[in-house]
Amino acid sequence: MLSPRSLLVRGMLVGLAAGVLAFAFAYLVGEGPIDAAIAFEEAHSEAGEPALVSRTIQSTVGLLTATLIYGVALGGIFSMAFAAAYGRIGRLGPRATAALVALAGFVVVALVPFLKYPANPPATGSEDTIGRRTSLYFLMLVIALASLALAVYVGRSQVARFGVWNATIIAAGVFVAVIAVAQVLLPSIEEIPDGFSPILLWNFRLASLGTQVVVWTALGLGLGAVVERSLRREAVLSTQ
Amino acid sequence: MSSISSSATPRPAVQPVAIPWRELQPWLLFGAVLAIALLYFVGTEQGVFHLIGGSGVHEFVHDGRHLLGFPCH
Questions:
Q1: Residues B63, A30: C-beta atoms closer than 8 Å
Q2: Which domain covers residue B39, as residue numbers?
Q3: Nearest Cα residue to A20 out of A204, A208, A211
Q4: Does the keyword Transmembrane apply (chain B) (predicted)?
Q5: ipTM score above 0.90
Q6: Residues in chain A closer than 8 A to B24 (CB atoms)
Q7: pTM for the whole structure
Q8: Which of A9, A175, B6, B58 has the fewest other C-beta atoms within 10 Å?
């Protein structure tokens, strides 16, 4: 049987690998738009601030540090979500369970908050509204997590009556409905300055979403493969 | 075991066994607290709140913060 401790350790190691892949993607795809946005910022501000950390450090070691810590943290929490889900989603094995939990994680943690409060490049957010923007972003995240919990609860309660397939559709419908209402009611943030290239904004946001896809894909496929392998080894040992 | 199963690639049809909630709870809590602490430093330290003075942490993880989708300056 799986132990929570070994799952947490493996999740964090898989997260480390996911962080490396995320860095590679973010560096190759995301740094171009960031540099272009900073160039816009410098062209439109009167006095340049003294650079505390050089751009070279920010775009290499700094970015790598951020993606590694992010990967380890998400990997840890993801493995715990996997530990809770494994054996509780029909007869799904470790790989399918990990893939499904990662898909849910991507939608709830990355995609849904992104749809309302998408990632913004440098030069597009006001210093004065950082508190409000941060609160709204995390509020959206909490609403997404709560909606997932509600959807899972509703779905499971309807399985006996409607069957697994239809209960899953009902659960998804509940999730989409709650998110839709929340996104309509929550205030929008529109601080993109005049003259900022829409193509640059699009490219940056695509790079940001792509980084999330890389992270969650690596987590889902990685943890599934690792757990599958150890369970098989265990099963082979026990039959010998 | 029969010769068929021992010679073929081992593919045991394991019925997945869930980890009991009682055993899982402390680890869920630990994992969540650990993750939130780490994410805080990558995502929002020296944004709205400051545990460490200055803006060194913010500037160091600056690009990651933007690309990972956290609200930033």
A1: yes
A2: 19-67
A3: A211
A4: yes
A5: yes
A6: 4, 80, 83-84
A7: 0.92
A8: B6
